[in-house]
Structures are given as structure tokens and as C-alpha cells.
Amino acid sequence: MSSSLRALLDAVPPLPVDMTLDAVTERFGEGGFDRMLSLAVVDEDRQPVGLISRHALMELLLNKYSRDLFGRRPIRYFMNTQPVIVSLADSTSSVISAVTTQMRIPIIEDFIFTEADGSYAGLGSVADVLKLVEQRLNQRNHALAQANQEIKASQAHLVQSEKMAALGQMVAGVAHEINTPLGYVGNNVQMAEEMLGKIHGLVAAYDSLFENLLNPAAEQTDVEAQIQAIAAMREEFDAVSDLADLNELFTDTRFGLKQISEIVLSLKNFARVDRAATDQVNLIENIETALTVGHHHLKNRVTVEKRFEPIPLVPCAPSQINQVLLNLLTNAAQAINHDKGRLLIRTYTRGEFVCISVEDNGSGIPPEHVSRIFEPFYTTKKIGEGTGLGLSISYRIIKDHGGDIRLATKPGVGTRFEISLPIKPLTNQPVHTDSSSDASGKQVADSIEVLQTQNTY
Predict the structure, then answer these.
(1) What would you report as the CA-atom Rg of the chain, rounded to the nearest whole angstrom?
(2) Into which CATH architecture does domain 273-454 fall?
(3) 162-198 pLDDT, tens digit each
């Protein structure tokens, strides 16, 4: 017998099955078990056969003739012959389950405890069982709360890991994008330095000749030698064409620096470090920023087509929307496994929502994967190529903004994702700054069905 069951047991003496109703009434009047609602009835072998409750006895005695008529009759005619009986040999959980599932409402009786051999051991109060259940529920709720906190911490860590992985890929790509103009800027500067060195030498030679020409004591042979040296230098340096080349070098250098500046500005806009968490945003600018930052995924193999209809400003967290757009662009680029890639990006308004459509002509998504595409950690990529959190995070970000993200796909044809965001600010639902929750399968299924009914391709 566990300590929990021992705490529930009250060793109240039972009533013999042949005890009269008058005697039972007197036993209830004697007291000593005021907290109990009933008394157990046992046979000659102390095997429980029923319960008689205070409530049943009072109802029986409300009739003033009942005692005269039934007072000398045995209690077995008036008892409840189907009481709740549990064994002390059972586990606490099974006892709680038996009592809570079999107890009657309203609660007017206790339940019977028996020994391992089935003999009567005592009574138990349903109220005590309910208190024990409450304690266990509180303990489980506390454990669940702790587990939930640990899960949230793990989710936050995984989301951060996903962001860092995406950031690493983005930084590597941006570094490559910056390295190209930086390379020819450096080359141009080197060539300009060489030309300026020649110009500096020629100017110095002209300056020395000019001083000798003004010097009456200068030797004629020295002047002639300087003139010959200048003539040789002029053969190596064509002032007209070389200065034109130098000017072109400076023009190319300015163009390269402008490209670097645009990439850095795109990175700044992508992060939106100087903007409020939520702002009125032109989503077309966000798309252009995401295309610039993710250009290394698309260049030389994917043609980007833009069909931007004028759209109103949208209240959103721009850095989070940038994260969603970059994720969709990256996924589209990775899905295109041929050299005739096409990416169609559209903006339009539907009712009270602004929509962005990202459509590729990649491999598409197999039907068995479609219903799980927004699940956390679910990925069709090879191990090490993805965590399966990108679309899940994107889904949660859009949902937290009060919008929706839906897809249509056909294997071998391509995939289209549609993002919709409300034009008016949310009044009852704030835009969260963290997004680590998962996606509801029902919501995803509904969203997919809506788009799959359209003739997208």
C-alpha cells in the first residue's frame, strides 16, 4: 500500500449485513466518523456487500411511519449494493481512476477500501481523492509549464540557429557580390597608380629641363640629354590616349564603388536597424532589397521577371518580411536545377490585403510533401543542407502579422507561394517580434486547397 492510499484510508468499523435499520440509525447518531458520508456493510467474512449513506437514511426516515414499518428489517434491504470498491493492493493511479469514473453525482457516498484478499479495510472520501487529483494536476501543470519553457528555449535556440545559418549563407553571397566590384576597383587603382607614376616622372623631367633652360651656366650637353630623356618617356606615355584611359579607369572605379554602396545599403535596408519594429512599409522596396541581397543565388542561371502593380503601404516589421522574402527567393533558386530558370514576382491588391506572389519553374513539390511543407524541421533537402525551419518561421511571421502564406505546386512544372498581408493595422492581435511557433496542419491544408483550385500554371 502506497503512502498516498494510506492517507486516503479511514478505518471506520463496518456494519453487519443483518443489522437492523433502527440500529444503523443509532450508529449514525453515535458519531465518531462525522466526515464520512456513509458506512460500509459487510457479510460474515468481512467481504463488503454494500454502502448505506446518511443521505439515503434521511430520505428513508422522512416518512414518520418508515421507522415503524422498516425499523426492524435488516440493512441489506436498503443499502446500495453496487458501491465503489478499490483494493489497497492497487496503484494510486488506478484507484483514482476507478473512483473518479464510477462516483455518482451528486456525491452522497464514500468508497470502500479492501485488503489484497478482498476483505474490508476501511472507507475513503471522494473529496480526498479529488484533492489528490488536484494536487497531481498542479504537479503536472508545473511540470508541463517547465517543459513548455524548455521547449520555448529550445525553439528560440533553433530559430536563432536557423537565422545564423541563413545569415552565414547570405554573408557569403554578399561577400562574393562585393568582391567582384571591389576586385576591379582595386585593379583600376593599381593601373591608375602606374599611369600617375609615369605622369609624375614626365612632369619632373619637364621641370628639370625648364630650370636648366633658365640657368645661364647650364651645359648644352645636359640640356640635350634631358630633351632626349623626355622624348623617350613620351614614346612610352601617350598623353592623349593614356589620359583618356585614366579618366575611364576613374569612371569604372566610381561605378564599382556605387555597386558596393548599393549592396551595403541593401543590407542596411534588409536589417532595418534604423527603423521601428513595426512601420508603414512599401513592400516593393523590400522585394528589391531581398533580390539584391540574394542575387548570388540567382545570377547567371535565373531570369527574374517583375510585374509590380501599385500597392499601398503595409504595417509590418520590415526585417521579418525581408527574412520571409529572402527565404522564398532562396528556396525558389534551390528548386531550379536547370539553366533556364525563371522567377516571376508579382504584387497586387486583393480586397483588404496586399499580396506578393513568388513563382518559379523549378522541380515543384511532390504531393506527399505538400501537406507538411510548413511543419517545423520538415525538409526534403539532404542532411546538412537545411534545418526545415525556414518555411515554418516564414509561416509564423506572416500569421503573426494577420496575413496568410499559401502555395500551389506541380512536380516538374514549378511552385508558387503567395503572401497576403492586411493593409490596415491589426487592432486585436499585435505583430510579434519573435516567430518560433509551428504551423497548423488544418490551416496549411485549407490554404493549399484555395490556391490549387486556381489555374496557376
Answers:
(1) 44
(2) 2-Layer Sandwich (3.30)
(3) 555 555 666 666 666 677 777 778 887 888 887 788 7
